[in-house]
């Protein structure tokens, strides 16, 4: 049987984790104090009371204002190191961390401040036996021009990045809006992924664009793909990963997309399990594995397959992959 100890002990790769979504209430309060920012709450319980949302838009309204406490290089370092310690406790051996520079540059924080703090933590994570890299995401509800400027700011640091992603509010913001920036990023040697959220009415069309036109190599969430068997065959044949996040999904769908995950496993499409915004959705990666395994009665073999998929679809060298598999 699958226990919490089993999901925790299993070596895992984390491919869908927003670093800003790891900001726990205690660190939020500490940084607010350090930077003399009034966030309107002074206790952990008060902060937790603000965590009420039932769709992406209402979540993002809580999520972005909280980031005000992130001001200095050391704030980004402390945020990422706190996460890497959690990752180590969860037996996460490899992690590709999403970050949203525009959520910070739009508040007047320099791009270099954000990426320098995160990168310094990536280097120090090695001492925790956590192999970490960074994926820069564009905010899809910002303009193309803003994405273009953000990519221009990032390219001098491209050796610190493994890939590019797309997140935030998907409504009326299809992947194709950023086709040019994705092309430029790929030309610079970066991998490509995009969110295709589960509660989007245009989800299948967005998945199609991302796969067939933009050549993305993974889909974040993306489990609505089961509605189109041809697209499922496409990702299975090419080894395109789908990064599903059960606890995040549970806010918009009580079944957490578990049936879809099982169908994808059945069809040998490389679906895997991740955390999204663990400080906001009630658990880190082992909790996400356990929540799904418990609700859908997964076998140990199925859980092991999900973890294997998280390594086969990771953006790591074949040599490193062999070490993990
Ligand atoms: C996100 Cl759950 C979710 N969806 C889209 N964008 C995001 N950024 C952080 N969490
Ligand atoms: Zn996400």
TrEMBL record:
One Pfam family, short name: A_deaminase
Binding site for Zn(2+): 16, 18, 195, 276
A GO cellular component entry from the record: cytosol
A GO biological process held by the record: adenine catabolic process
Top-level EC class: hydrolase
Site residues, Important for catalytic activity: 221
Annotated binding of substrate, by residue: 277
Adenosine deaminase domain: residues covered: 11-325
InterPro entries: A_deaminase_dom, ADE, Ado/ade_deaminase, Metal_Hydrolase
Keywords annotated in UniProt: Hydrolase, Metal-binding, Nucleotide metabolism, Zinc
SUPFAM superfamilies: Metallo-dependent hydrolases
UniProt cofactor(s): Zn(2+)
Catalytic activity: adenine + H2O + H(+) = hypoxanthine + NH4(+)
MF terms (GO), sorted A to Z: adenine deaminase activity; zinc ion binding
Cofactor notes: Binds 1 zinc ion per subunit.
CDD domains referenced in this protein's UniProt entry, alphabetically: ADA
EC assignment: 3.5.4.2
NCBIfam families named in the record: aden_deam
Family, similarity comment: Belongs to the metallo-dependent hydrolases superfamily. Adenosine and AMP deaminases family. Adenine deaminase type 2 subfamily.
Function: Catalyzes the hydrolytic deamination of adenine to hypoxanthine. Plays an important role in the purine salvage pathway and in nitrogen catabolism.
Protein name as annotated: Adenine deaminase
Source species: Bombilactobacillus apium
Gene expressing this chain: add
């Amino acid at each position: 049987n699958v226990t919490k100890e089993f999901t925790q002990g299993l070596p895992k790769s984390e491919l869908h984790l927003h670093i800003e979504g790891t900001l726990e209430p205690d660190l939020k309060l500490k940084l607010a104090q350090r930077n003399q920012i009034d966030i309107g709450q002074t206790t952990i319980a008060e902060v937790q009371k603000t965590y009420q949302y039932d769709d992406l838009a209402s979540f993002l309204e809580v999520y972005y204002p909280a980031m005000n406490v992130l001001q200095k290089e050391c704030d980004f370092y402390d945020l990422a190191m706190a996460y890497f310690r959690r990752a180590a406790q969860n037996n996460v051996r490899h992690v590709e961390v999403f970050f949203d520079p525009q959520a910070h540059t739009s508040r007047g924080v320099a791009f270099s401040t954000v990426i320098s703090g995160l990168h310094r933590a990536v280097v120090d994570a090695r001492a925790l036996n956590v192999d970490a890299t960074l994926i820069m995401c564009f905010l899809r509800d910002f303009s193309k021009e803003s994405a273009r400027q953000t990519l221009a700011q990032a390219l001098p640091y491209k050796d610190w990045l493994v890939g590019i992603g797309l997140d935030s509010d998907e409504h009326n913001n299809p992947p194709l809006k950023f086709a040019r920036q994705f092309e430029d990023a790929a030309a610079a040697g970066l991998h490509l992924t995009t969110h295709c959220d589960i509660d989007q009415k245009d989800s299948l069309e967005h998945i199609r664009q991302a796969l067939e036109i933009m050549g993305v190599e993974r889909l974040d969430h993306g489990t609505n793909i089961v509605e189109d068997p041809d697209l499922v065959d496409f990702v299975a044949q090419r080894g395109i990963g789908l990064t599903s996040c059960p606890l995040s999904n549970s806010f918009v769908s009580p079944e957490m997309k578990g049936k879809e995950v099982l169908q994808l496993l059945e069809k040998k499409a490389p679906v895997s399990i991740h955390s999204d915004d663990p400080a906001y959705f009630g658990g880190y990666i082992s909790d996400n594995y356990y929540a799904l395994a418990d609700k859908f009665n997964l076998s140990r073999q199925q859980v092991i397959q999900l973890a294997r998929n998280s390594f086969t679809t990771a953006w790591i060298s074949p040599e490193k992959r062999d070490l993990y598999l």
